[in-house]
Amino acid sequence: MKRGWITWDKTELPPSAFESRLAVVRARLAAADLPALVVYSDVWRSNQGRYLSNFMPYWNRALLVIPRDGAPVLLCGLSPRVYPWIRSVTILEDIRPSANIPQQLNQLRTEKGWSRIGVLDLPQLPYELSVPDAVDVPWSAIHAEPDEAELSMYRRAAAMAREILDEELSGPPVLLDRRFVGRLERRFRRAGAEDLVIFITGDSVSVALEYRGHWVKIVRATVAAPRSSSVFKTELLSGPYPYECCLQSDLKPGSIFAVTTEGIVEGKRVFHGDTFRLGPDGAELL
Q1: Which of 81, 109, 141 is a domain's end point?
Q2: Which residues have a Cβ under 8 Å from the Cβ of 65 and sit 6 or more positions away?
Q3: Which of 36, 107, 220, 282 could bridge to 67 as Cys pair (CB 3.0-4.6 Å)?
Q4: Strand (E) positions, 5-131?
Q5: Where a domain ends, among 111, 126, 141?
Q6: φ and ψ at 169, to 5 degrees?
Q7: What are the pLDDT digits (tens) for 43-57?
């Protein structure tokens, strides 16, 4: 199941966090003399839309349109029957059915009298959703570093992931098979994980999970940690996609990322990994 139960606990993530984020977007639009910003969202690329509105689709795709003056509008390919649910878990009120999203965007632009318009990370927009007279607005221009509300959610997700995985791997030796994966799936889903990817290799298990739209990745081995290890993989978690491989040199201050290391124990490859933030003094465990 791609998404579990999506809810919005406003004590965890207050509406004021979104007000502050939208203020940054509108200041950027004003500086560039643009009337609105278009943000693409789909099931796999939902980090940016979630950050700005708390919208995370179960499926299909949408355009989040943020006017410089006015409330955000969601052009949505989903059926209107789910709009009450969308309104309950996002800051959005104006949701427009959009079987043809480019056409609906053009209608909105005509209605508002917009000519040039900003598109978040324009080069990454799907080619069939071309936006005439569009201006690229890079993600880094509105999201230099995670804010405190976002960091709190990442920390909560990482703590949950570590606690459940470490508990399941403690005690008698664990057989890493489909039954173990099923046990993890049940516990993580009940704890609120909306998306979950579990990989098992040899004596190691990797869990990447999404909690309230915030991705973390934890990797543990069932055997003793190797005396020495090397970096196997670095993945960016705070970019437009849930997690994508990158070089450590590509990380920016404030980036949320996962590092997986590899070592040898009794001739076997074993892996260990966790989620970090790139702080002023280097990598900080979340």
Answers
A1: 141
A2: 36, 37, 38, 39, 72, 73, 74, 75, 105, 108
A3: 36
A4: 36-42, 61-67, 73-76, 94-97, 117-120
A5: 141
A6: -95, -5
A7: 889 999 999 999 998
